[in-house]
């Protein structure tokens, strides 16, 4: 049984805990928050986990085997680095780090300390994502793909009213491409690998981060168009166009439904049933790696390519984070 601690006391942490417990491989043993009252209130929902308000105490605790990190983006790398060096396994919410150099450094730290580092990007672990990969081989030569995730942020009205929430604050390594856009980039890389070339554009807010944007990834024989936004909604599925048929995916992050459309047109639902809490699958994959004490090299390769591509997109669109200027060991 993996003794799990969590960093973060928000809805996504609750969702991950539920998924982790559902696998039967974890016991919630610790809750960390800089605010004692927040930690206490959050922990009351569970069976007597230890409360931590000092990260060093968590890192050194003999009661904890692994830590789930769901803090703001800019805290991911430094918190993960400290925990990995202390011998803790880490599952860290995407994006793993603010930039490519930091991501590379984290994986090296994990290797140096013989522990598991796992980026909590649920999409590649979903059964319907496996269906999508299989069906891509059944639609003829792929010619075009559009991967879209646009969702009006509940924090955007606050930003428009003069506040500066984490969601739109470069101090926290945030913005559309680092949040909702990650799913689009991550799905493309998981399916097709590193693109030959990238051309990106974005509409920047006055805070310095992107509110929405797009990118074109060029591959051999086809291209992938990425659309992402936290300032508008879209109700269109992602689409993969082959010479013989097309595939449409409802909500690429969750892969709720995969449909195959042939000329006629004939539409076929090729989806399989998934556990309602989609984080179940990543929790299960992380547990397997911890139990075997072996990181999945394909996961690492995908994670690093995604980080590299996100860093390039930000370079092209002019989104700069304070952490970009922080020296690394790499």
UniProtKB/TrEMBL annotation:
Any GO molecular function: nucleotide binding
Domain Gfo/Idh/MocA-like oxidoreductase N-terminal span(s) in chain numbering: 2-120
Superkingdom of origin: Bacteria
InterPro entries registered for this protein in UniProt: Gfo/Idh/MocA-like_OxRdtase_N, GFO_IDH_MocA-like_dom, NAD(P)-bd_dom_sf
SUPFAM superfamilies for the chain: Glyceraldehyde-3-phosphate dehydrogenase-like, C-terminal domain, NAD(P)-binding Rossmann-fold domains
Domain GFO/IDH/MocA-like oxidoreductase: residue ranges: 138-243
Entries under PANTHER family matching the protein: PTHR43054, SCYLLO-INOSITOL 2-DEHYDROGENASE (NADP(+)) IOLU
Name this protein carries in UniProt: Gfo/Idh/MocA family oxidoreductase
